């Protein structure tokens, strides 16, 4: 059995999942910090 | 720890720390992943599929370490009533859940060429799946509590009680004669049964993923603190208009 499709799937899932997690965390952080700054300036 | 219980002091530390964790994490991860995929030789028994170890093992460690962090924050929340403790526990839960899910998924992918099956209800796999469900339950509990304006005490008690699953996961391969292989690395004894030429990328990927885990937690904490400031300001504005 060729193992490489399984290896690529495992690495792709882990790296993609971690990247998506970091992106969601970053977008959420930026959105609330921007909103807090806007309200502070008003 | 008490020093950082103040949100302003914490933010002063968290803003640069987020970027340090992100960049250092990537710096460790790139050579670790490259080494694991292209430099290390195939395992004598499992062949190339053993390369999945470099992403699966850090995901498993972080899935469990995440709950330990969540439980420690829950203890701080109940005992010392630290204002940041609930924020820290809430921020850790989704990150830990993602890594627990990645551990299950990569383990399943590894299991197909190694064991000939995607899933087996053995002690290690089942206890890890329970940990994943505990994360989901904590997230639901904490959200419900926050929406009701609570301090998250029920979620904190759940977080502490949930630590009971950690020794079950750890010792599952010893307590039950299961399909999952036994422990290869012991932190307590500082030993590893993995050959040196296969082992070296693991500390790099484990360190890299740990730093990315920390960066994600810091970003979720910053988001939660900013959300609190937004809600407080909007509440004050609404009260001023009355």
From TrEMBL, chain A:
<keyword id="KW-0813">Transport</keyword>
<keyword id="KW-0812">Transmembrane</keyword>
<comment type="function">
    <text>Required for the export of heme to the periplasm for the biogenesis of c-type cytochromes.</text>
</comment>
<keyword id="KW-1003">Cell membrane</keyword>
<protein>
    <recommendedName>
        <fullName>Heme exporter protein D</fullName>
    </recommendedName>
</protein>
<dbReference type="InterPro" id="IPR007078">
    <property type="entry name" value="Haem_export_protD_CcmD"/>
</dbReference>
<comment type="similarity">
    <text>Belongs to the CcmD/CycX/HelD family.</text>
</comment>
<keyword id="KW-1133">Transmembrane helix</keyword>
<keyword id="KW-0201">Cytochrome c-type biogenesis</keyword>
<dbReference type="Pfam" id="PF04995">
    <property type="entry name" value="CcmD"/>
</dbReference>
<feature type="transmembrane region" description="Helical">
    <location>
        <begin position="6"/>
        <end position="27"/>
    </location>
</feature>
<keyword id="KW-0472">Membrane</keyword>
<dbReference type="GO" id="GO:0015886">
    <property type="term" value="P:heme transport"/>
</dbReference>
<dbReference type="GO" id="GO:0005886">
    <property type="term" value="C:plasma membrane"/>
</dbReference>
<keyword id="KW-0997">Cell inner membrane</keyword>
<dbReference type="GO" id="GO:0017004">
    <property type="term" value="P:cytochrome complex assembly"/>
</dbReference>
UniProtKB/TrEMBL annotation, chain B:
<keyword id="KW-1133">Transmembrane helix</keyword>
<feature type="domain" description="Cytochrome c assembly protein">
    <location>
        <begin position="21"/>
        <end position="180"/>
    </location>
</feature>
<keyword id="KW-0813">Transport</keyword>
<dbReference type="InterPro" id="IPR045062">
    <property type="entry name" value="Cyt_c_biogenesis_CcsA/CcmC"/>
</dbReference>
<comment type="similarity">
    <text>Belongs to the CcmC/CycZ/HelC family.</text>
</comment>
<feature type="transmembrane region" description="Helical">
    <location>
        <begin position="123"/>
        <end position="142"/>
    </location>
</feature>
<protein>
    <recommendedName>
        <fullName>Heme exporter protein C</fullName>
    </recommendedName>
</protein>
<keyword id="KW-0812">Transmembrane</keyword>
<feature type="transmembrane region" description="Helical">
    <location>
        <begin position="92"/>
        <end position="111"/>
    </location>
</feature>
<dbReference type="InterPro" id="IPR002541">
    <property type="entry name" value="Cyt_c_assembly"/>
</dbReference>
<keyword id="KW-0201">Cytochrome c-type biogenesis</keyword>
<dbReference type="InterPro" id="IPR003557">
    <property type="entry name" value="Cyt_c_biogenesis_CcmC"/>
</dbReference>
<keyword id="KW-0472">Membrane</keyword>
<feature type="transmembrane region" description="Helical">
    <location>
        <begin position="198"/>
        <end position="220"/>
    </location>
</feature>
<keyword id="KW-0997">Cell inner membrane</keyword>
<dbReference type="GO" id="GO:0020037">
    <property type="term" value="F:heme binding"/>
</dbReference>
<keyword id="KW-1003">Cell membrane</keyword>
<dbReference type="Pfam" id="PF01578">
    <property type="entry name" value="Cytochrom_C_asm"/>
</dbReference>
<feature type="transmembrane region" description="Helical">
    <location>
        <begin position="59"/>
        <end position="80"/>
    </location>
</feature>
<comment type="function">
    <text>Required for the export of heme to the periplasm for the biogenesis of c-type cytochromes.</text>
</comment>
<dbReference type="GO" id="GO:0015232">
    <property type="term" value="F:heme transmembrane transporter activity"/>
</dbReference>
<dbReference type="GO" id="GO:0017004">
    <property type="term" value="P:cytochrome complex assembly"/>
</dbReference>
